Amino acid sequence: MRNTPYFKWIKLVIASIIFILWVVWIENYWFLLGYPLLFDNYITKKIPWGFWKKRKDGKKPSPIVEWIDAIVFALVAVYIINIFLFQNYKIPTSSLEKSLLVGDHLFVSKASYGPRMPNTPIAFPLVQNTFSSTTHIKSYLDWPHWDYKRLAGITNVKNNDIVVFNFPAGDTVPFLSNNPDYYNQMLITGLQEAQKNNNLMPKQPFNSDWERNHYFMNIGRKFIHSHPERFGTVISRPVDKRDNYVKRCIALPGDVLEIRHNQVYINGEAVDNPEGLQHNYLIKTDGTALNDRFYERLEVAKIDRQGMGNSYYIPLTKDKAKLVEDMPFIESITIDEEIPNNTGFQVFPYSSDYNWSRDNFGPLAMPKKGETIDITIKNLPIYERIITAYEGNKLMVKDGQIYINDQPATKYTFEMDYYFMLGDNRHKSADSRSWGFVPEDHIVGKPILVWLSLDPDKSFPANIRWDRFFKIVHKN
């Protein structure tokens, strides 16, 4: 059948169906203009697609040419797969232990929540934003730039889903100092510089915490940009080229989140905690030193081990904490709880009008697409980045009046849905308590499988966690 004249038409029909379904899926019908190229490839063959491989003497292409051809094809295939189907992601920190471990390599499904069309379509595959951690040479071109568009997916983000997303505060990055994020660094640095130099302290009291924060952030911004030897070049990144984070989605658009004494409540009801949920515990011994065998028994990574004298500060699950409590050389074990201190500098939104801490947080309503809220100077610290950074509006405050796009504003309607993400290792996680909401256009995908796991605390081959190979990623 392969030698019959009808076979090429059969191949064309199959390819045409796939091509048309793909165009309908991405809802960009301009691609239909490329259909003649598909037709030529199977039927007319007028375009010499392999012209660059042909030799004048008619001989077979050299091995170098064949290798280049194979590499180009592989890169194109990987690029397409990476956009529409899945990508690899490596767990870099302990924020999700014990649900996901440092050194886990994940297959992240982009089809689960619907793949995004890239904001930066011309980019080197398999490289997130720069070619290495030591250089800020971009792996993508800033132009052309496409607006946010998400294709139809299999499902929606649900409560307790583990989600990979682009870091919302990663739009601006000091290349040599990216933790904490740029905005927190501006605030912290501005406060420190003002405390060192009384001339920088304000002469008049602030009218609001929003005004206070912007005052100190402006000082911090000038300091960071004037000290590249310490902070590095300050660079900006589009949404799809911001660093990837992985956390657990705790609250969906429209939910009301609250954390009371380390327990999460959604819409007033306590949620079921993940099996691997951890909090930091203060442990005091009778003088016995905690050794590697102790930590390995409790599965505490080296990065999470802290102690001095007979006092130790380590993350544990409830079951592991009970195990420690029953050990004969333990004098006391107490769960850590950060109490709000009225300063407004502990957690998002960094305002004394919201006297919250990482362990006592909210209530906070999740913004929902199409919802309209009252906007005030008091709640502006909560919604400022939504209005400006995420939804692209111009915001200004003058004489106590809020202006959006140069118009006086007392209300605001959200253009996107927003989510709240937490790490399961609650006291070892930089998450939404630090930088706020995750916009829908930052959602990358859903981890579905651990395909490789390497323990960073051990050397090869002992570092291979064989029991985690091809482990399905569950909610709990």
Automatic annotation (TrEMBL):
Q: Where in the cell is it found?
A: Membrane
- EC top class named in words: hydrolase
Keyword Cell membrane among UniProt keywords? no
Listed under catalytic activity are:
Cleavage of hydrophobic, N-terminal signal or leader sequences from secreted and periplasmic proteins
- PROSITE patterns named in the record: SPASE_I_3 (PS00761)
Q: Which residues cross the membrane?
A: 12-32, 64-86
Q: Name one GO molecular function term.
A: signal peptidase activity
Occurrences of domain Peptidase S26 (ranges): 65-175, 225-279, 416-451
**Cross-referenced Pfam families, in alphabetical order?**
Peptidase_S26
Give the bilayer topology: Single-pass type II membrane protein
* UniProtKB keywords: Hydrolase, Membrane, Protease, Transmembrane, Transmembrane helix
**Enzyme Commission identifier(s):** 3.4.21.89
Q: Which family does it belong to?
A: Belongs to the peptidase S26 family.
Q: Which PANTHER family match?
A: CHLOROPLAST PROCESSING PEPTIDASE, SIGNAL PEPTIDASE I
Q: Report what the protein is called.
A: Signal peptidase I
**Organism listed in the record:** Carboxylicivirga linearis
Q: What does the organism's lineage look like at the top?
A: Bacteria, Pseudomonadati, Bacteroidota, Bacteroidia, Marinilabiliales
